[in-house]
Amino acid sequence: MIRITRNDAADILKSADKILILTHQSPDGDTLGSGYAICRALRSLNKQANVICGDFVPAKYDYLSEGIDIQDFEPEFILAVDIADPKLLGKNLSHYGDKVDLCIDHHGSNTGYAKKLLLDDTCAACAEIIYDIINILGVEIDKCIAECIYTGISTDTGCFRYSNTTANSHFIVAKLMQIGFNYFRINRRMFEIKSRERIEMEMRALEGMEYFLDGKVAIITLTKDMINNSDPGELEGITPLPRQVEGVRCGITLKQHDDNVYRISVRTGHDLDASKICARLGGGGHKCAAGCSVRGTRDEVIDKLLNAVKDEMSACLKPDEDNIICRPTIDDIQGMDELA
Amino acid sequence: MIRITRNDAADILKSADKILILTHQSPDGDTLGSGYAICRALRSLNKQANVICGDFVPAKYDYLSEGIDIQDFEPEFILAVDIADPKLLGKNLSHYGDKVDLCIDHHGSNTGYAKKLLLDDTCAACAEIIYDIINILGVEIDKCIAECIYTGISTDTGCFRYSNTTANSHFIVAKLMQIGFNYFRINRRMFEIKSRERIEMEMRALEGMEYFLDGKVAIITLTKDMINNSDPGELEGITPLPRQVEGVRCGITLKQHDDNVYRISVRTGHDLDASKICARLGGGGHKCAAGCSVRGTRDEVIDKLLNAVKDEMSACLKPDEDNIICRPTIDDIQGMDELA
Q1: Which residues of A touch B167 (CB under 8 A)?
Q2: What does the alpha-carbon distance between residue A259 and residue B209 come to, in Å, rounded to a whole number?
Q3: How far is the C-alpha of A226 from the C-alpha of A204, rounded, in Å?
Q4: Is B271 found in the same domain as B183?
Q5: Which of A269, A320, B210, B212 is most deeply buried (CB count within 10 A of its CB)?
């Protein structure tokens, strides 16, 4: 693997053709936005390029690929965008894992699987790097490319809320907005609309929310029944809810995996380390989003969790900042699955 | 009333002293952020300046006034920020209504009550104008001023989601972020944390949500009991909920005012005009947020509302854009109160 610069990447793409662009499984706005932005730019340079994803792409992302039909060609160059690890290609695309010519990514955890790697982990979104490359390529950013890049940045920053947002994220978006595009349509799709099922799921989860340790811990339990009757994507939206409650430093979601096995998601602010709490129970993850798997009845599991939280709270002397929103990343989810 | 420019306003403030800064009732992030930003800038020029509000200021805004003690002086200059109408000063400050020397505002509906008016309704937030004035005054924007201006812009744009957000909003925020401040702490306070009461209120409201006209209309009913047991601020958060549901073009909240009188809030996208729906029932308001008052049993009221929605849907030929988020403004709420 060779680390390269933005200019190198632009040069390589300039001389490439028949480019297959890979996006990651459980596709999000950044991998798809990055993929379709660079695909549109490459096509405007009269190159052949396709974007593929090994997973189902939710309908809410339809506009990113509008007008981008699948072209018929044998790929000569494989480009991966926003993919930290070949495992994230998913089963259907796993055969490309050792064939990636260039990977463009912003995850510090990138495994270096590609022949060439353009990595900038100071960027909130991969789409920010793609924006720079398109400019270096000399391609004019039109409304469609602007929508793709905006989608990548806005979704990866939680609409500019998360602590990964930078001045540069806002500068790029300001420049995109001067081009003019329907950003509020995108925002409504990405951040406002919920399906009826999602709303019902949230209500059932919130109904059963319990508070412990003077309201510093909130716990939601999702039973096997609730899980089996839900879309996994909807389920992911539940885990941030307990931490939204005023005064809660540690939000926990219990997912009943089997009668006496619970998969646990823990969410904290920067004042309390979720990964350390989970490590006390054999799990791990990131500072603000971690996971573990605990055996026992629900009461026993909650007891173990509360003990781990109490121990970690007394070990950590930081004041309650009650302040920081962490973005649960694909890596967290991946990490949590591996721990279970 | 004389309309003035940003440069004029800066000149006037340069020669003023003992400045009393007025903010509007039901204070929000923009009026308070604008007020404390300019107050901090004026004090750094060795002027005396205070910010006052006629209403209770929620604790979540505490950081805006951190370190800004009340100074003891007889006001010689009255400055109003983000106040479109002297009525919005509220009872406690109403005596200042005809004494405002300078009003800085971004509401097109400004009544022109002040002696001098700096109005720019292309700005998403009053804080954007304040940012320019502070720069013209030559005051260095420190972390505290940056937090105040960021709060104004982020709250008035729904964290950059609403259709009023401009390239300039993002440019200013990019420049503020280069100064460095804890924006994610602000975002958590403004956009994430909910009180337990708020969550319970939302759940009770959502539990009773009903769908009509093939799911294009969603209605929430708040009974007299629910209203009497709630903080009015929490109630305001309920009205956007029905429109969040996938497929809903018209979200309606019924607030039981008396046994047979309901106050109605209607929320739509730009594809359907809420004010026209409400006008059919003797009310009015804005395109995306309007209100009316309807007599009858709950069933009768819903019937009347659905007829008005159906009539307006057939009168309006626009396709369902399902897309636009409108910011309910102080003006909407004001308008709706007056209509009831």
Answers
A1: 174-175, 177-178
A2: 33
A3: 9
A4: no
A5: A269
* Amino acid making up residue A93: L
pLDDT at B32 over 80: yes
Task: State the pLDDT at residue A333.
Answer: 39
pLDDT for residue A133: 98
Interface of B with A in 305-324 (CB under 8 A): 321-324
Q: In chain A, how many domains are there?
A: 2
CB B30 within 8 A of CB B58: no
B138: Cβ contacts below 8 Å, ≥ 6 apart: none
Do residues A160 and A59 share a domain?
Answer: yes
Contact residues for A288 (Cβ-Cβ < 8 A; gap 6+): A267, A268, A269, A270, A274, A324, A326
- Chain A residue with CA closest to B164: the answer is A184
Q: What is the pLDDT of residue A320?
A: 52
* CB contacts, 8 Å: A218 with chain B: none
Do residue B153 and residue B205 come from a single domain? no
CATH of residue B13's domain is 3.90.1640.10
Instruction: Tell me, yes or no, if A182 comes closer than 8 A to chain B by beta carbon.
Output: yes
Expressed as residue numbers, the domain containing B330 is 196-337
By Cβ distance, the residue of B159, B188, B203 closest to A324 is B188
Q: Are A24 and A35 in contact (CB under 8 A)?
A: no
CB contacts under 8 A, A 47-106 vs B, are none
Q: Which of B190, B211, B236 is the last residue of a domain?
A: B190
Q: Are residues A64 and A207 both part of a single domain?
A: no
B170 at A interface, C-beta within 8 A:
yes
CB nearest A194 (choices: B159, B169, B246):
B246
Residue A270 has pLDDT above 90, yes or no: no
pLDDT band (50, 70, 90) for residue B227: confident
Mean pLDDT of A182-203: 90
**pTM as predicted:** 0.88
A175: closest chain B residue by CA: B167
CB atoms within 10 A of CB B207: 11
Determine the Cα–Cα distance for residues A37 and A172; give it in Å rounded to an integer. 14
Chain B residues with CB under 8 Å of A161 CB are 159, 184, 187-188, 191-192
Mean pLDDT of B305-332: 66
Kindly tell me if the per-residue pLDDT of A183 is higher than 50: yes
Residues A23 and A110 in one domain: yes
With beta carbons less than 8 A apart as the criterion, state whether A141 and A134 touch: yes
Q: What interface predicted TM-score (ipTM) does this complex get? A: 0.87
Task: Say whether residue B207 is in contact with chain A using an 8 A CB cutoff.
Answer: yes
Please indicate whether, in this complex, the C-beta atoms of A323 and B178 are within 8 angstroms of each other: no
